[in-house]
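Appendix B, Record 12. Input sequence as logged:
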Amino acid sequence: MKGKTDTRVRYQRYPADKIGRTVAGSPERNTKAGKGTQMQYTYIVECRDGTLYTGWTTDLEKRIKAHNTGKGAKYTKNRAPVRLVYHEEYETKQEALKREYAIKQMTRREKLALIAGQAAEDPAGDPTVKG
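Logged structural output:
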């Protein structure tokens, strides 16, 4: 129609600002006031059916409980109980998410080797086995 203005909202440059999330930046920028910097964890759990699930969290104990009560990931909901078999610690969410992605790209055999402590190094060349 002629003369009608487009009322759709468009978020192009900084969509995270528009939906109330922080834009990636320093750890101080991404923490809530007074909380300080939280450790970030990338983890692997073994499900009841023997499959492996990889995720990230700021609280391992709470996340495992969530998986086991059906409130965690959709994948683990019908595969509970799960058992934590591996984890790594990171200072930033960005690092933990990058590592989660890298682990999810691995084959099952590579993940099992990582869990067994035989594996791999992260892209920076540092040993990753921490848990």
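The domain at 38-116 is CATH 3.40.1440.10 (GIY-YIG endonuclease).
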